[in-house]
Amino acid sequence: MSIADIKKTTEAKMDQSIAAFKNNLTKIRTGRANPALLDAVQVDYYGSPVPISQVANVSLLDSRTISVQPWEKGMGPKIEKAIRDSDLGLNPSSMGELIRVPMPPMSEERRKELTKVVRNEGEGAKIAIRNLRRDANESVKKLVKDKLASEDDQKRAEADTQKVTDKHILEIDKLVAAKEQDIMAV
């Protein structure tokens, strides 16, 4: 593996870490309704747990209400129970075949708790990025040790890896700040 390959795979892995972090952020609740909020909720479907999106159509009725339309008649009560039992603090109600999930307004205390959760997620993502930087630097050192690259190449590669790391950490900081602002908006 060459230094260029190490740089390319490291940057790709860092981009994947950012994508995973963005995905985690969508699951953290804000004041507005978001269908992605229910992605983590599992429903018992003939004995096996599956995501709600695989047994129902999840969409928005308005800015504060999510609608869930089961594809099978008997799934309504199971979906309702799964949403109620999740740790999202939601209370769904049935209207025939349609399940409405209103988003209750959040208290100031709950908003502050969620900003802490967001910061914690951000710190976890930064740690993942730094671990990838460390792995890349160790791979380059191994190439130098095996006499496949010079020490000057090592210095340049480490500087480039640091630039990429800084760029990704700055992006995480921006995402955290935007999500915190979104949560604190009343």
Automatic annotation (TrEMBL):
Q: Which UniProt keywords apply?
A: Cytoplasm, Protein biosynthesis
Q: Where is the Ribosome recycling factor domain?
A: 21-184
Protein biosynthesis among the record's keywords?
yes
Known Pfam families for this protein?
Answer: RRF (PF01765)
Q: Where found?
A: Cytoplasm
Report the main location listed first in the record.
Answer: cytoplasm
Function comment: Responsible for the release of ribosomes from messenger RNA at the termination of protein biosynthesis. May increase the efficiency of translation by recycling ribosomes from one round of translation to another.
Recorded hits in NCBIfam families, A to Z, give: frr
User: Its family?
Assistant: Belongs to the RRF family.
- Name of the molecule in the record: Ribosome-recycling factor
Gene name linked to the record: frr
